[in-house]
C-alpha cells in the first residue's frame, strides 16, 4: 500500500480506543485539564519508543471520532490539530505538549465535534500530531514500532477511560499509516476489495484515477476528487452480471442485491468524505463515467 501524503515535518497519529461491547463513551471529549494530562502521558510513552519525540511539539485533540473521519482526503481531522498547534503560544521556544479538550461545561467548538452520523462503532480515535526538527528520525522509529509496541501505559489508559466515561477493551497508539493498513484489512476481510481500491486512490493519490469494472461489483470510477457510480437498468445489469441467468425471480433478487451493494459503496464513501455521483448508464459501458 502507498504511504499517506504527509506535510513536511509532521507526524500524524491516533490514540485508538477499542470499546467493550461497542458501548459509546459517555463524553465526547476530555475536559481541558485532563486533555493536557493525557497529552503529557502520550508524549512520555512515545519518547520511550522514539527518544527524540521529547524534542518535538506534540498536540492532541482529546475528542474521539470514527476512524473514517481520520481517513478523509487531505486528512482534515489532523489538519485541525495542526491549526490548533500553530495558533497556540510558545512557538520557537522549548518543545510544547498540548491537549485540546472541552470547556468546563463539556462543550466543544463546532469545528472539533465528531460526525453524528458515524457514532456507534466499536473503535474510536483521538488524533495527535508531532512537529519539529527531529521529526525525520522520530517518524521512522514510530512507523516501525507503534503497531507492535504502541499499547498505552496503564495510567494513560485509565485517564482516558475515566475522562471519557468509556468501557474499554484496549487503548493503543497508531500512526496514520497503521490506521490505514488496519482499515484496509477490515474492508478486504468484509469482501470490499474494490471499494477499498477506490478509497485508497482518493486518500493517497487524490489527483489520480481508478476505474472499478469487475462484475458483480458496482461499476464505479474515481477521478477529480469524486466517485461516479453507474446506474444500470435491469437489462444492462443482466447483460453485464448474469447473461446466462433466465429465471425472472432470481434476476429480480440479483438486481436488488446489486442495488444494495451500490448503496453500501455510496454510504462508506460518504463516511470518508468522498463525494459520490450516480450516472445513468443504459448500456453498462464504463465510458459513461468519464
Could you provide a short overview of the structure?
It is elongated, with a radius of gyration of 22 Å.
Folded structure, characterized:
By secondary structure, the protein is an alpha+beta fold. Helices cover 41% and strands 19% of the residues. The chain folds into two domains: 178 residues, no CATH class; 98 residues, no CATH class. The chain contains nine helices and nine strands. A five-stranded mixed beta sheet has the order 3-2-4-1-5. A four-stranded mixed beta sheet has the order 6-7-8-9, covered by helices on one side.
Topology:
Layout: E1 10-19, H1 32-49, E2 57-61, H2 67-70, H3 76-87, E3 97-100, E4 123-131, H4 135-149, H5 154-164, E5 168-175, H6 176-189, H7 193-204, E6 210-212, E7 220-223, E8 226-231, H8 234-241, H9 248-271, E9 276-280
Parallel strand pairs: 2-3, 8-9
Antiparallel strand pairs: 1-4, 1-5, 2-4, 6-7, 7-8
Helix pairs in contact: 1-5, 6-7
What is the mean pLDDT? 92
Shape call = elongated
Percent of sequence in beta strands: 15-25%
- The figure for the number of domains is 2
How would you characterize the largest beta sheet? Answer: 5 strands, mixed
Query: What string, H for helix and E for strand, traces the elements in order?
Result: EHEHHEEHHEHHEEEHHE
Report how far apart the termini are: 26 Å
DSSP helix count? 9
* Major beta sheet, strand line-up: 3-2-4-1-5
Class based on secondary structure composition and strand pairing: alpha+beta
- Give unreliable regions as ranges: 4-8
Please give the share of residues in helix. Answer: 40-55%
Rounded Rg: 22 Å
- Count of strand segments: 9
Amino acid at each position: 500500500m502507498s504511504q499517506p501524503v504527509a506535510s513536511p515535518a509532521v507526524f500524524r497519529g491516533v490514540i485508538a480506543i477499542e470499546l467493550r461491547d461497542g458501548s459509546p463513551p459517555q463524553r465526547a471529549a476530555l475536559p481541558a485539564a485532563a486533555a493536557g494530562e493525557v497529552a503529557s502521558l502520550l508524549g512520555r510513552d512515545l519518547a520511550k519508543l522514539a527518544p527524540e519525540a521529547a524534542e518535538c511539539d506534540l498536540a492532541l485533540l482529546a475528542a474521539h471520532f470514527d476512524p473514517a473521519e481520520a481517513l478523509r482526503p487531505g486528512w482534515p481531522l489532523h489538519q485541525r490539530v495542526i491549526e490548533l498547534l500553530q495558533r497556540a503560544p510558545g512557538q520557537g521556544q522549548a518543545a510544547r505538549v498540548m491537549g485540546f479538550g472541552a470547556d468546563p461545561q463539556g462543550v466543544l467548538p463546532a469545528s472539533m465535534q465528531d460526525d453524528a452520523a458515524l457514532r456507534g462503532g466499536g473503535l474510536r480515535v483521538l488524533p495527535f500530531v508531532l512537529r519539529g526538527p527531529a521529526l525525520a528520525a522520530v517518524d521512522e522509529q514510530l512507523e516501525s514500532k507503534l503497531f507492535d509496541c504502541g499499547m498505552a501505559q496503564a495510567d494513560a489508559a485509565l485517564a482516558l477511560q475515566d475522562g471519557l466515561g468509556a468501557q474499554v477493551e484496549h487503548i493503543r497508539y497508531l500512526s496514520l499509516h497503521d490506521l490505514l493498513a488496519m482499515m484496509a484489512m477490515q474492508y478486504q476481510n468484509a469482501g470490499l476489495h474494490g471499494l477499498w481500491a477506490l478509497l485508497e486512490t482518493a486518500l493517497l493519490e487524490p489527483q489520480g484515477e481508478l476505474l472499478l469494472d469487475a462484475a458483480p461489483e458496482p461499476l464505479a470510477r474515481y477521478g477529480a476528487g469524486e466517485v461516479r457510480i453507474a446506474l444500470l437498468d435491469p437489462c444492462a445489469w443482466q447483460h453485464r452480471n448474469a447473461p446466462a441467468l433466465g429465471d425472472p425471480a432470481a434476476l429480480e433478487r440479483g438486481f436488488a442485491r446489486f442495488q444494495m451493494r451500490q448503496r453500501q459503496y455510496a454510504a462508506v464513501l460518504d463516511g470518508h468524505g468522498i463525494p459520490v455521483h450516480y450516472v445513468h448508464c443504459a448500456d453498462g459501458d464504463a465510458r459513461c463515467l468519464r
